[in-house]
Design brief:
Number of helices: 5
Largest sheet: 13 strands, mixed
Order of helices and strands: HHHEEEEEEEEEEHEEEEHE
Shape: globular
Helix content: 10-25%
Structural class: alpha+beta
Radius of gyration: 20 Å
Number of strands: 15
Length: 271
Amino acid sequence: MGVLSIRSSFVFFVLVFVVHVLLTLSIAAEDGGFSYIVGSGKGPEDWGRINPLWQACGNGKLQSPIDLLNEKAQVSPELGGLKTEYKPVPATLKNRGHDIAVFWKEYAGQININGTYYKLVQCHWHSPSEHTFNGERFALELHVVHESSGGGIAVIGIVYKNGQPDPLLEKLLEPIKAIDKQDIDLGVIDPGIIKFGSGEYYRYIGSLTTPPCTEGVPWTIVREVGTVSNEQVEALKEAVDDGFEANSRPTQQLNDRAIWLYTPSGTGGAA
């Protein structure tokens, strides 16, 4: 076989592979690609069988979310305080069908985790909360998603109980009520409006909570429970596609993973 034929065959192979990857990845974006309804054939218990690229959802050992057991958390002052370096830039509201998300269009700041910088990309909501505290589930959970220059993902999670309105959702309430499948330009949104509590947080290594459930994600879960109004929670539920009103993955096995707890005082205490 000549050099030209080898190159042509290689190019053909690469094109076929790329098309295969794009098609399989697109399943998640299509209606019915996955579901949160147990027993539907596409629910969380079946994600690992729907797509070959999602096998971690079924057989992974570092999966998220988890139950954050206070008695298992190891106090670690070495983690240091959670420092967010955010700035206001233009953002877009997106309805991804399974959730509502805010994407920042420009560089909106970063966080530093163990010496790696992750830039802020987007945030989205799950209802009810995905992570639980000692078995207790809450009304809502916000995921603030960051990405490193190498493509790694780091997420900050905040859980909310019913009570006073959340400032970020208060600002976004009318756009959320109005959104359909067309993105909404939000103008400038300051990520600094997100309340990260008193500075206490849990840290563990987990995964994405939606397919493909990629592992190796450092999670930072704010220990203080925020508040959100019932109107805000209902607006998020009404905006997503039918069947995704409850868009929370069940908690996963800890599998002997370490859970670290950072407190400014350097001591633990009840959550």
